[in-house]
Amino acid sequence: MDSLYFLIPIAVVFVALAIKVFFWAVNNGQYDDLETEGRRILFEDDLQASSTKTEEKE
Amino acid sequence: MKSPCYHCGLPVPAGSNHSVVIEGVPRSMCCPGCEAVASAIVSGGLDGFYRYREKQSDRPEQNQPQDRWSAYDLPEVQQLFVHDWDGGRQMAALLIGGITCAACVWLIEKHLGQLAGIEKVSVNASTQRAQIVFDPEQIQPSALFEALEQIGYRPAPATAANRESVIQSEHRAALRRLGVAGLGTMQVMMFAIALYFGAGSGDVGEFERYFRWVSLLVATPVVFYAARPFFSAALRSLRTRHLSMDVPVSLAIGLAYGASFYATVFGTGEVYFESISMFTFFLLLGRTVEMRARHRAGLASGGLAQLLPMTAARYDGTEVAHVPVAALAAGDRILLRPGDTIPADGEVLEGESGVDESLLSGESALQQKTVGSPVYAGSVNGDSSLTVRVTAAGKSTRLSAIERLVERAQLEKPAQVALADRVAGIFVGVVLVAALSAFAVWWQLDPSRAFWVALSVLVVTCPCALSLATPAALASATLRLQELGLLVAGGSLLETLPRISRVVFDKTGTLTRGEPRILHIDLLRDGWTEQKVKDVAAALESQTHHPLARAFRAWRGNLTASQLKVHTGRGLEGQIEGNRYRLGRADFVIMQSITAPQGEGQWLLLADEVGAIAWIALGDKLRDSAAQAVEQLGQMGLSVELLSGDQSAEVKRLAAQAGIECFRAGASPEDKLSHMKQRQDAGEKVLMVGDGLNDVPVLSGADASVAMMSAADLAQSRADAILLNGDLRVLAQSVALARKCRRVVRQNLAWALGYNVIALPLAVCGLVPPWAAAIGMSLSSLVVVINALRLSRAAPSTEDTTRVEPNIRPRLAD
């Protein structure tokens, strides 16, 4: 049980770190546009495939 | 029927021959504008855009002057929206109209990325803003505008960046508070579970003391950072001497925290850290959702200033210079081409033209302007060129005066909030009295328990469930409505919508598309086909900007006309393949009276030097969703009515087509208003759906009002909601959702009040242990929030589940 005296402050420090990271993310605009960013990766992959395809066709 | 335009989704007129090969398949386009945009996209190798987009694109504007962006290269204009960036580069902030989905972002970023000198493009789809970092040595801002226009978007400099940054920082602050409250709650709840086990034992052990201190440590930022808005709002409301919901909220948080702090330091009594944190988190969550809905509504209806053009053609006696509108001053001379939006108030010096002042007066017919007539900013020059001397620019124009009116209207407090505040006032009074009397009574019985009993009264009855009941349901219903396509701007809409008994539609632009179409062609001479009549008419109309000319847009380019001449208010004439043609009013076209055929629409006569060739009937077409919407509303027990300012034959035809039995034609704005007042006096609740400025009085007078997306800005700002996608069936769905929302609010209030009625006496008698108070309070708000969330998943339609998505067809074709 004595380990709690040691482990709980560590947990609190982790939470503090999590909040710091979260603040950093918010202040850097990571949460400003939730709609686009989630899909961007889909566009990128397919684009390269399709543009090379069209180049081949031409 | 032909498939709709692949780019914008509007129907392709018969006889149109515009098409673009996209991904190997020829796609039909409705107009040269869409064709040009689609070709630009395909030639850039970006045709993947059509595969990814989820909504149809907007139809691009046409016939814009070529050099209209050059004014943005002037240094004094640039300083409004271009800022310095690292390493000698610059960053331009642009507002981009026409973004419909994430694929647009992709398209814009790729297309601009192909230009030399552009370093970085980032587009935000929800705010429609773009930040473009570029090298000023290689590329000028005007090229950015041009490139965006090429692919069908409407760029504008984001000069109102201040308001935008206020919204952004508000949004970020809310998210930060929410994050602190959320993470803090999770952590404190973990310690609280440990504390619950020791809570009944009475004596405060070593571990319990330790856990309390850690809980205090974690809960402190939640109270002092995350919950600060409640304290400042409560202070504000106390200063204005009335009790709002924020007062008991802050009282509960503040007292519970103070008492828990005391208990922790001195090792007596109970702690409530987890209740405080959870309560703060839930309340913040509700408010953040509400705030986002409000911001989005604000973004959708932009300022009136955007109606003005960005540049004007100033004429200083020898040469014409394109200058930013902001640089205009009284006394300047400006040239206006047909179709130009007038940038400032002024007086006509030269020329004669019809001007569309529908924005300002609601009158849709063109106003004749001759030398000496006044013209107003925001109106549109109709058919021939004008020279105008500016009398007032910028803030002193009539348009600005209207804008100020609109702003004032927006500041008015919605009735909904006022009602919640009144309820809160009574509730707060009752709770405070109960807590004080409990304290007084217990002071007599057992002074050591008095404070704790009073506190548990405050915590148990803490108005969280009550204060969340209405906003949580409203926020969740508002979000759902937005998904359906109805942007709620006025807070009272969801409250009044379930009580509506009658729906009144305006005709033009509301039930109809607000775009003239060719209804019918009557050939008067042998050897002519309908196709040829359309081609000739389109060639004659190709240079004018009269609204009726849009009906012929699809056939433009098949023939070319020369020596075009516009006779304002009467018609057009021009030379095609060696023949002189005239199109317009019969008495002008063939100089003698001839009776137009019977039938709906506005009749134009086409003739050459020999005589009449054909009658062309132009009219408006019903929206596809209109008849279905009328039927659905009828099924829900609502009466539907059509109120129009137009003459009767056309109104009757459209009413019959839409299935509306009750209609009234030829009504002026005053008639409309008094007609509505009559209905209201008879005990009916009226929902008005309209779009024009002449509808503004009725929209403000109706119990609830909805404006179309294409509506004049003043109409939008006076309406409680804006219909984003023009699908009238959403109205019936909204009424159904509002009814459901009313049920949920009642359930929530009943639950919250019922809970308090049971808990309050128990707490006053000292029968509620603190852990039970904490759990009860958290549970009661959880129930309310979860119940409200049901609304955001409510089925989209009343009964009808066959919603046709307009974009399904092109996607299936892939």
SSE map:
The complex is a heterodimer of chains A (58) and B (814).
Chain A: H1 4-27, H2 34-57
Chain B: E1 18-22, E2 25-29, H1 32-43, H2 48-52, H3 75-78, E3 82-84, E4 90-97, H4 102-113, E5 118-124, E6 129-134, H5 141-150, E7 154-157, H6 161-199, H7 206-226, H8 228-239, H9 246-266, H10 273-300, E8 311-315, E9 320-324, E10 333-336, E11 345-350, E12 353-356, H11 358-361, E13 367-369, E14 374-375, E15 380-381, E16 386-392, H12 398-411, H13 415-445, H14 447-460, H15 464-484, E17 486-488, H16 493-496, E18 502-505, H17 507-511, E19 512-523, H18 530-541, E20 562-567, E21 571-576, E22 579-584, H19 586-589, E23 602-608, E24 612-622, H20 626-635, E25 639-643, H21 648-658, E26 662-664, H22 669-681, E27 686-690, H23 696-701, E28 704-708, H24 713-718, E29 721-723, H25 729-764, H26 770-792, H27 808-812
Parallel strand pairs in B: 18-25, 18-27, 25-26, 27-28, 28-29
Antiparallel strand pairs in B: 1-2, 3-4, 4-6, 4-7, 5-6, 8-9, 8-10, 10-16, 11-14, 11-16, 12-13, 12-15, 17-29, 19-24, 20-21, 21-22, 22-23, 23-24
Main location (chain B): membrane
Domain HMA (chain B): 90-156
Keywords (chain B): ATP-binding, Cell membrane, Ion transport, Magnesium, Membrane, Metal-binding, Nucleotide-binding, Phosphoprotein, Translocase, Transmembrane, Transmembrane helix, Transport
List keywords for this structure.
heterodimer; A: 58 residues; mainly alpha; 2 helices; disordered C terminus; B: 814 residues; alpha+beta; 6-stranded antiparallel beta sheet; 27 helices; 29 strands
Assembly of the depicted chains: heterodimer
Count of alpha and pi helical runs of chain A: 2
Shape of chain B: elongated
Look at the helices and sheets of chain B and give the structural class: alpha+beta
Report, as a whole number of angstroms, the end-to-end distance of chain B: 19 Å
Adjacency order of strands in the biggest sheet of chain B: 17-29-28-27-18-25-26
User: Mean pLDDT of chain A, nearest integer?
Assistant: 74
Helical segment tally of chain B? 27
Beta-strand content estimate of chain A: under 5%
Sheet with the most strands of chain A? none
Tell me, what's the shape of chain A?
elongated
Query: Would you list the SSEs of chain A in sequence order as H and E?
Result: HH
Radius of gyration of chain B, whole Å: 32 Å
Determine the mean pLDDT of chain B: 77
Q: How much strand of chain B? A: 15-25%
Helix % of chain B is 40-55%
Helical amount of chain A:
over 70%
Greatest interface: A-B, 31 and 34 residues
> Poorly predicted ranges of chain B (pLDDT <50, ≥5 residues)?
300-305, 409-414, 797-814
Unreliable residue runs of chain A: 46-58
